[in-house]
Amino acid sequence: MTAGFPLPDTTDPRLAPFWEAAAQGELRLPRRVHGTGFDWYPSGAEVEWVRLPGTGRLFTWSVVERPLHSGYAGITPYVSALVELDGAPGVRLVTRLLEAPDRLTIGAPVIVRFTDLGTPGPETAVIAPLFVLHCVKDKS
Question: Cα–Cα distance between 35 and 43 in angstroms, integer?
């Protein structure tokens, strides 16, 4: 683990199921038990953690050229993104894309890759859902 790389609190009870699922190679988000829809970012409502397919569409992105924190220097430049997740209407997940920015377009299909949060730089021992472009073959 590299000192100085900002890490999420994987033990926070509101988010521990998210990080535990990621460590097992699953993307799970909290869906309200009473009412409809997902509760992302968890607010404290009664929820059940639902497994999602790990696919979605690129809503927007930004190429970060200068590290916002000195700990990010090992991964800069990187692509920060919002991904609209399949199976979770209205949910957009803040993540990173492991792709060259010249290949990105709004609405592009993406798929999750569970990898160390510090990829491609320092090893952090935290597995995170990062995304790559997903090539969808035309069935016509």
Answer: 14
pLDDT tens string 55-66: 999 999 999 999
Q: Which of 139, 3, 140 is nearest to 71 (CA)?
A: 3
Quote the CA–CA distance of 90 and 93 in Å, as a whole number.
Answer: 10
Classify 53 as helix, strand or coil.
coil
CA–CA distance, 117 with 124 (Å, rounded to integer): 6
Among 87, 99, 90, smallest CA distance to 61 is for 99
CA pair distance 91, 86, nearest whole angstrom: 9
Q: Distance between CA 38 and CA 108 in Å, rounded?
A: 23
The predicted-structure confidence for 71-117, as pLDDT tens digits, reads as follows 888 888 999 999 999 999 999 999 999 977 788 999 999 999 999 99
Helices assigned H by DSSP within the chain = 16-23
Domain boundaries, the chain: 16-133
pLDDT at position 96 = 94
Residue 36, amino acid: T
